[in-house]
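Build the 3D complex.
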Amino acid sequence: MPDRDAIAAFLAAEFPQTRCTVLSVEPGGATVAHAVGPAELRPGGTVSGPVLMAVADVALYVAVLGAIGLVPLAVTTDLSIHFLRKPAADRRVVGVCRLMKVGQRLAVGEVTLYSEGLDEPVAHAVGTYAIPPGPRA
Amino acid sequence: MPDRDAIAAFLAAEFPQTRCTVLSVEPGGATVAHAVGPAELRPGGTVSGPVLMAVADVALYVAVLGAIGLVPLAVTTDLSIHFLRKPAADRRVVGVCRLMKVGQRLAVGEVTLYSEGLDEPVAHAVGTYAIPPGPRA
Amino acid sequence: MPDRDAIAAFLAAEFPQTRCTVLSVEPGGATVAHAVGPAELRPGGTVSGPVLMAVADVALYVAVLGAIGLVPLAVTTDLSIHFLRKPAADRRVVGVCRLMKVGQRLAVGEVTLYSEGLDEPVAHAVGTYAIPPGPRA
Amino acid sequence: MPDRDAIAAFLAAEFPQTRCTVLSVEPGGATVAHAVGPAELRPGGTVSGPVLMAVADVALYVAVLGAIGLVPLAVTTDLSIHFLRKPAADRRVVGVCRLMKVGQRLAVGEVTLYSEGLDEPVAHAVGTYAIPPGPRA
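Done.
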């Protein structure tokens, strides 16, 4: 299975917009981080919801790649997120994904999102990836 | 209740990152559009999932503002999205929100996302906004 | 494709617990109803949440069967429900499903739940069915 | 805060249909179990999806009661479930809830569902409860 650096390079090619950094990829999970600056903040110092959703989506994608290999055609089929607390304006958002199922056709994982260094989660997401048929990488 | 222009101005102030345009606000719903260009596309010409999630979130926000007034502290509490089809690379994403409930404390709506001008939806989202206590705008 | 009676018979065999009645099956959708009596009510006259979830699941199942034929191995992969209003204690629950996608591998639909005869929905669900590989019925 | 027996008695009064047993209530979580017999099984020995949804709902309810006291008017506002594996036909379904947020107005928790004694989860749910205004029990 690909290591962190290989997945980070693949992510940069496949998902060039993402501002997420791959922190680690473990069997069954992955951790990513997203910088927070003016582009991510709303008035009052709230990290915007779409940023949190994007971090959840990328964390799940990275974890799936770590489990099935560098398969370009894996696509999200659903993502459900609950927003729990106001994120800190001056900390990165960290997304910790844990895969709950990696089947032949679908992978399902949950992502807990934190303001880096703080204990209480700011959001929690669950999502599904559809895995393309055929031999895996 | 605020009209389209008032909501568009409020959105620009409260959500300065958004690239969504408010197309219309009706009783019980709203329609927004998001340009699609290199910043929204992944290799192969797919609009990235986070863009679709962002459009859904903004469409719901705009519809809620249209229903309860320009209340800055309304926050998304959950958003669930299903991705249905590959969006077109050369068409705007349009999000059509229909509110299903506007209560004292929570508003719930669904958003159907299209590639502009095409009939089949590319994604569908459902989300909840928490409405702050106190007199409404 | 199977008609209403064929689907009702199939449902009775495959899902013997269900107390749902198939009212209609149309291209792209289906309508089911569930009786409400003491077994469905909680104190105060609220139809219990699990009953509403069960109606949503069956409505989606029936609509999928109507679209792909009487395939026994189709299974729900996710279901998301929002509860909107207190259902009436003395009316059947009706679930109206509209399919949003019927692909080779996944079908996605939404279900709006009503107290029969009333206009405002009591709940809204979205769910996915995984369709088994191989020739369809 | 109420103990396990008090919550079990309250559950029996408020939710008389449930066949769930309260196994434990801890700060921030709860565990419940549901017997599996002919009434829960579909042909082929699958525990029906609505049973799993019901266990998730009750596990979340019990955990919320453990956190806020015996408040009768707490209601589920949303529940999202992903089905992961076929449950065993001859084991109880166990739902383990962990609360992620207990706010003034909303509580959010996740529930992992198992076939009793087996390690891999059969389903995973996330849900929100709305907490009624006013003094807590």
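The radius of gyration of chain D is 14 Å.
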